[in-house]
Design brief:
This protein is an alpha/beta fold. It has 8 helices and 7 strands; from the N terminus they run βαβαβαβααβαβααβ.
Protein backbone atom coordinates (compact mmCIF):
# COMPACT_ATOMS: atom_id res chain seq x y z
CA UNK A 1 0.00 0.00 0.00
CA UNK A 2 1.13 3.52 -0.75
CA UNK A 3 0.06 6.56 1.28
CA UNK A 4 0.65 10.18 0.34
CA UNK A 5 0.48 12.89 3.02
CA UNK A 6 -0.11 16.49 1.96
CA UNK A 7 0.83 19.23 4.42
CA UNK A 8 1.92 22.85 4.52
CA UNK A 9 5.04 22.95 6.69
CA UNK A 10 7.90 20.84 8.00
CA UNK A 11 6.74 19.20 11.27
CA UNK A 12 3.04 19.02 10.24
CA UNK A 13 3.63 15.40 9.31
CA UNK A 14 5.02 14.37 12.68
CA UNK A 15 2.70 16.35 14.93
CA UNK A 16 -0.45 15.09 13.23
CA UNK A 17 0.47 11.64 11.97
CA UNK A 18 3.96 10.58 13.05
CA UNK A 19 2.85 7.40 14.82
CA UNK A 20 0.58 6.39 11.95
CA UNK A 21 3.38 6.93 9.45
CA UNK A 22 5.62 4.69 11.55
CA UNK A 23 2.96 1.98 11.69
CA UNK A 24 2.72 2.08 7.91
CA UNK A 25 6.42 2.13 7.11
CA UNK A 26 7.36 -0.48 9.69
CA UNK A 27 4.99 -2.83 7.86
CA UNK A 28 6.82 -2.07 4.60
CA UNK A 29 4.12 0.23 3.23
CA UNK A 30 5.37 3.16 1.14
CA UNK A 31 4.78 6.64 2.56
CA UNK A 32 5.55 9.82 0.63
CA UNK A 33 4.98 13.44 1.54
CA UNK A 34 4.08 16.69 -0.18
CA UNK A 35 5.29 19.69 1.80
CA UNK A 36 4.13 22.99 0.35
CA UNK A 37 6.68 25.24 2.07
CA UNK A 38 9.92 25.05 4.01
CA UNK A 39 8.56 26.86 7.04
CA UNK A 40 10.36 30.12 6.42
CA UNK A 41 7.92 32.13 8.55
CA UNK A 42 8.29 29.94 11.62
CA UNK A 43 10.34 30.60 14.73
CA UNK A 44 14.13 30.07 14.63
CA UNK A 45 14.09 28.79 18.20
CA UNK A 46 14.37 30.54 21.54
CA UNK A 47 17.21 31.32 21.85
CA UNK A 48 17.59 31.34 18.03
CA UNK A 49 19.25 28.28 16.52
CA UNK A 50 19.79 30.02 13.20
CA UNK A 51 19.45 33.38 11.52
CA UNK A 52 15.93 33.94 10.21
CA UNK A 53 17.15 34.21 6.60
CA UNK A 54 18.48 30.63 6.76
CA UNK A 55 15.41 29.20 8.50
CA UNK A 56 13.92 27.61 5.38
CA UNK A 57 17.10 25.66 4.65
CA UNK A 58 17.42 24.56 8.27
CA UNK A 59 13.80 23.43 8.47
CA UNK A 60 14.17 21.51 5.20
CA UNK A 61 17.06 19.62 6.77
CA UNK A 62 15.07 19.06 9.96
CA UNK A 63 12.22 17.59 7.92
CA UNK A 64 14.56 15.27 6.06
CA UNK A 65 15.99 14.06 9.37
CA UNK A 66 12.51 13.45 10.77
CA UNK A 67 11.42 11.71 7.56
CA UNK A 68 14.36 9.33 7.82
CA UNK A 69 13.22 8.27 11.29
CA UNK A 70 9.60 7.94 10.20
CA UNK A 71 10.55 5.94 7.12
CA UNK A 72 9.15 8.41 4.57
CA UNK A 73 10.51 7.47 1.15
CA UNK A 74 10.19 10.76 -0.72
CA UNK A 75 9.42 14.41 0.00
CA UNK A 76 7.95 16.61 -2.71
CA UNK A 77 8.56 20.28 -1.88
CA UNK A 78 6.22 22.61 -3.77
CA UNK A 79 8.60 25.53 -3.29
CA UNK A 80 5.97 27.91 -1.95
CA UNK A 81 6.58 30.49 0.76
CA UNK A 82 5.40 29.92 4.30
CA UNK A 83 2.52 32.20 5.26
CA UNK A 84 1.37 32.83 1.69
CA UNK A 85 -0.69 29.76 0.78
CA UNK A 86 -4.00 31.39 1.66
CA UNK A 87 -3.14 34.21 -0.74
CA UNK A 88 -2.65 31.82 -3.67
CA UNK A 89 -5.69 30.84 -5.73
CA UNK A 90 -6.75 27.34 -4.77
CA UNK A 91 -6.80 26.36 -8.45
CA UNK A 92 -3.07 27.09 -8.64
CA UNK A 93 -2.36 24.94 -5.59
CA UNK A 94 -4.42 22.13 -7.10
CA UNK A 95 -2.38 22.33 -10.31
CA UNK A 96 0.79 21.82 -8.25
CA UNK A 97 -0.59 18.98 -6.15
CA UNK A 98 -2.62 16.94 -8.65
CA UNK A 99 0.26 15.92 -10.96
CA UNK A 100 2.17 14.59 -7.96
CA UNK A 101 -0.83 12.59 -6.77
CA UNK A 102 -1.29 11.14 -10.25
CA UNK A 103 2.41 10.29 -10.53
CA UNK A 104 2.57 8.70 -7.08
CA UNK A 105 -0.73 6.87 -7.65
CA UNK A 106 -1.35 6.34 -3.91
CA UNK A 107 -3.99 4.14 -2.35
CA UNK A 108 -4.55 6.68 0.42
CA UNK A 109 -4.17 10.46 0.60
CA UNK A 110 -4.12 12.24 3.97
CA UNK A 111 -4.27 15.96 4.65
CA UNK A 112 -5.60 18.39 7.26
CA UNK A 113 -9.29 18.73 8.02
CA UNK A 114 -11.08 21.79 6.65
CA UNK A 115 -10.20 23.88 9.73
CA UNK A 116 -6.51 23.18 9.26
CA UNK A 117 -6.46 21.66 12.77
CA UNK A 118 -5.21 24.91 14.33
CA UNK A 119 -6.99 27.38 12.02
CA UNK A 120 -3.63 28.19 10.41
CA UNK A 121 -4.45 29.84 7.05
CA UNK A 122 -1.76 27.78 5.28
CA UNK A 123 -3.22 24.55 6.72
CA UNK A 124 -6.71 25.47 5.58
CA UNK A 125 -5.48 26.33 2.08
CA UNK A 126 -3.54 23.08 1.67
CA UNK A 127 -6.49 21.04 2.96
CA UNK A 128 -8.86 22.62 0.44
CA UNK A 129 -6.44 22.19 -2.47
CA UNK A 130 -5.47 18.62 -1.59
CA UNK A 131 -9.12 17.63 -1.16
CA UNK A 132 -10.02 19.14 -4.53
CA UNK A 133 -7.04 17.45 -6.17
CA UNK A 134 -8.10 14.11 -4.70
CA UNK A 135 -11.57 14.52 -6.19
CA UNK A 136 -9.98 14.84 -9.62
CA UNK A 137 -7.71 11.86 -8.90
CA UNK A 138 -10.53 9.58 -7.74
CA UNK A 139 -12.56 10.34 -10.86
CA UNK A 140 -10.02 8.54 -13.04
CA UNK A 141 -8.56 6.00 -10.63
CA UNK A 142 -9.03 2.35 -11.55
CA UNK A 143 -8.24 1.06 -8.07
CA UNK A 144 -9.68 1.62 -4.61
CA UNK A 145 -8.47 4.96 -3.24
CA UNK A 146 -9.34 6.85 -0.07
CA UNK A 147 -9.01 10.36 1.30
CA UNK A 148 -8.63 10.96 5.02
CA UNK A 149 -8.47 14.20 6.97
CA UNK A 150 -6.52 14.41 10.21
CA UNK A 151 -8.78 15.01 13.20
CA UNK A 152 -8.55 16.48 16.68
CA UNK A 153 -11.53 15.28 18.74
CA UNK A 154 -13.58 18.05 20.30
CA UNK A 155 -13.53 16.04 23.53
CA UNK A 156 -9.74 16.40 23.64
CA UNK A 157 -9.96 20.14 23.08
CA UNK A 158 -12.36 20.43 26.01
CA UNK A 159 -9.89 18.58 28.25
CA UNK A 160 -7.04 20.84 27.12
CA UNK A 161 -9.13 23.93 27.75
CA UNK A 162 -10.03 22.72 31.22
CA UNK A 163 -6.32 22.14 31.93
CA UNK A 164 -5.39 25.59 30.63
CA UNK A 165 -3.49 24.10 27.69
CA UNK A 166 -5.50 25.46 24.77
CA UNK A 167 -3.56 26.57 21.68
CA UNK A 168 -5.28 29.58 20.18
CA UNK A 169 -2.55 31.30 18.16
CA UNK A 170 -4.89 31.36 15.16
CA UNK A 171 -8.14 31.62 17.09
CA UNK A 172 -10.05 29.04 19.06
CA UNK A 173 -9.55 25.57 17.61
CA UNK A 174 -12.77 23.96 16.41
CA UNK A 175 -11.80 20.30 16.40
CA UNK A 176 -13.91 17.50 14.92
CA UNK A 177 -17.08 16.04 16.44
CA UNK A 178 -16.06 12.77 18.06
CA UNK A 179 -18.93 10.86 16.46
CA UNK A 180 -17.81 11.59 12.88
CA UNK A 181 -14.20 10.47 13.42
CA UNK A 182 -13.87 7.17 11.58
CA UNK A 183 -10.36 6.06 12.45
CA UNK A 184 -8.47 5.94 15.74
CA UNK A 185 -4.88 4.71 15.52
CA UNK A 186 -3.19 3.59 18.73
CA UNK A 187 0.47 4.58 18.53
CA UNK A 188 1.60 3.53 22.00
CA UNK A 189 4.39 1.36 20.62
CA UNK A 190 5.45 4.04 18.13
CA UNK A 191 5.17 7.00 20.48
CA UNK A 192 8.80 7.27 21.59
CA UNK A 193 10.01 7.07 18.00
CA UNK A 194 7.45 9.70 16.99
CA UNK A 195 8.87 12.02 19.64
CA UNK A 196 12.38 11.29 18.42
CA UNK A 197 11.28 12.42 14.95
CA UNK A 198 9.49 15.43 16.38
CA UNK A 199 12.64 16.53 18.18
CA UNK A 200 14.48 16.67 14.86
CA UNK A 201 12.53 19.89 14.31
CA UNK A 202 14.87 21.66 16.69
CA UNK A 203 13.94 25.17 15.63
CA UNK A 204 10.35 24.41 16.60
CA UNK A 205 11.19 23.15 20.08
CA UNK A 206 8.69 25.49 21.74
CA UNK A 207 5.87 23.82 19.79
CA UNK A 208 6.83 20.24 20.62
CA UNK A 209 7.58 21.10 24.24
CA UNK A 210 4.04 22.49 24.50
CA UNK A 211 2.72 19.42 22.67
CA UNK A 212 4.38 17.02 25.12
CA UNK A 213 2.85 18.81 28.11
CA UNK A 214 -0.57 17.91 26.74
CA UNK A 215 0.08 14.37 27.94
CA UNK A 216 -0.96 15.65 31.36
CA UNK A 217 -4.47 16.29 30.07
CA UNK A 218 -5.07 13.93 27.12
CA UNK A 219 -3.79 10.60 25.84
CA UNK A 220 -1.20 11.31 23.16
CA UNK A 221 -0.99 7.62 22.30
CA UNK A 222 -3.74 7.97 19.72
CA UNK A 223 -3.99 9.71 16.34
CA UNK A 224 -7.34 10.39 14.72
CA UNK A 225 -8.60 10.61 11.14
CA UNK A 226 -11.88 11.00 9.29
CA UNK A 227 -12.60 9.14 6.06
CA UNK A 228 -13.78 11.81 3.63
CA UNK A 229 -14.11 10.03 0.30
CA UNK A 230 -13.54 6.60 -1.28
CA UNK A 231 -14.54 4.97 -4.52
CA UNK A 232 -15.23 1.42 -3.28
CA UNK A 233 -13.91 -0.33 -6.36
CA UNK A 234 -14.03 -4.06 -5.71
Amino acid sequence: MKTLFVFAHPDDETFSSGGTILKLTEKKNIVNLICATKGEAGEPGNPPITDKKYLGKIREKELKNAAKILGISKIHFLGLIDGTLHKIKSEKLVKLILPIIKKENPDVVITFDSTGASNHPDHIAISKAATTAFKAYISTSKKEVKLYHTAIPKSNLKKLEKAGMSYNAFGQMKGVDDEIITTKINIKHEFNKKIKALKQHKTQHQDWERFLKRNLAIDLNNEYFTLIQENNIS
